[in-house]
From TrEMBL:
<keyword id="KW-0406">Ion transport</keyword>
<comment type="similarity">
    <text>Belongs to the alphaproteobacteria porin family.</text>
</comment>
<feature type="signal peptide">
    <location>
        <begin position="1"/>
        <end position="22"/>
    </location>
</feature>
<dbReference type="Pfam" id="PF02530">
    <property type="entry name" value="Porin_2"/>
</dbReference>
<keyword id="KW-0472">Membrane</keyword>
<keyword id="KW-0812">Transmembrane</keyword>
<dbReference type="GO" id="GO:0009279">
    <property type="term" value="C:cell outer membrane"/>
</dbReference>
<keyword id="KW-0732">Signal</keyword>
<dbReference type="GO" id="GO:0006811">
    <property type="term" value="P:monoatomic ion transport"/>
</dbReference>
<protein>
    <recommendedName>
        <fullName>Porin</fullName>
    </recommendedName>
</protein>
<keyword id="KW-0813">Transport</keyword>
<dbReference type="GO" id="GO:0046930">
    <property type="term" value="C:pore complex"/>
</dbReference>
<keyword id="KW-0626">Porin</keyword>
<dbReference type="InterPro" id="IPR003684">
    <property type="entry name" value="Porin_alphabac"/>
</dbReference>
<comment type="function">
    <text>Forms passive diffusion pores that allow small molecular weight hydrophilic materials across the outer membrane.</text>
</comment>
<keyword id="KW-1134">Transmembrane beta strand</keyword>
<dbReference type="GO" id="GO:0015288">
    <property type="term" value="F:porin activity"/>
</dbReference>
Amino acid sequence: MHLRSLLLGAAAALAAVPAARAADAVVIAEPEPVEYVRVCDAFGAGFFYIPGTETCLRISGYVRYRVGATSDDGVTDTPNFNGYAPDGWNKETRARVNIDARQSTEWGLLRSYLRLQATWGVPSDGPVRVDQAWISLGGLRMGYSESAWSDTVGGVNTTGSHSDGALWYGDQQRHFIQYNFGGDEGIFGVISLEDDTLSGEGYMPDVVGVLSYQQGWGGVWGRVGYDESFDGFGASVGVQLNVPNTDGSNFRLIGYYADGDHAYGTGSSYGAITGGMGNSEWAVLTSYYHQITERLGGSVGFEYFSDFYAGGSTVSTGLDGYVAEVSLIWEPVDNFEINTEVTYDKIDTFGGSVGGFVSFKRSF
């Protein structure tokens, strides 16, 4: 009897083993489907969809190395005209990263833009910082970037001359809220409320208005800027004419007026002497760029200043000045440029300033 019970118990135990093993079986989960990055061709080359969203992102930028020199004949006990130390080589390395996010909405294009930048060398040397940051929805745009006084107008680049230095055109960055209307062709306009101090000084902003008209032949534009803290204004009109059957070649002519040494003028090297902006009452800038071959281009530019103001005032000095430049840009391979520029800067009663540089830039 005992032997029979023992055999039955052993058989029952063996029968239970497969059931226990089946209950403890390891189940391998199916892998989640991989969502590959998709190309977004709605906004041009380089954009891709952020996975899981309908936002398109583009990351671009460049690394640039520049070496130059300047000589200031006859200028003593004053800052250097070009901001560089004279009688020696001046080196500068810059790194820039642009992050551009765009998404189509029922209210228009939703966009944010961020520029990270660091520059080492003369005249500035510092860590990586946010150089520009802004958002826009449709025509509404706000943040910190180029002032509407110096920004490109629609589809025509109106930031001074054709060179990298661009001569003097009132280049500056501002905190702003603005409305843009129009496109790269036809009528384009901007009304911009801007703050030059960023310190909450008062409630009245500076005001800039821009209106332009552009077609395949080029464009015409006008600007007006009111400097609230100075209680002064500046105005500018310009035209660009594209050379027929020569892609990229064009002629540019811009005139400027300012009623004092405030934010809405051209600025100039005279500001290094007076400690102000360097505005003159009138200024005229002309520049021509020619695409010599597919990979080689060059430009010449000239700017004349009539009657400089004493620094930060409406007092006329009676001094005039001018600056001339020549530049060459060679792109031996895609996304790599070698650029050289030479300028001559002259102000009445001061010696002239000769400066130049060679730069190497890899864009991505």
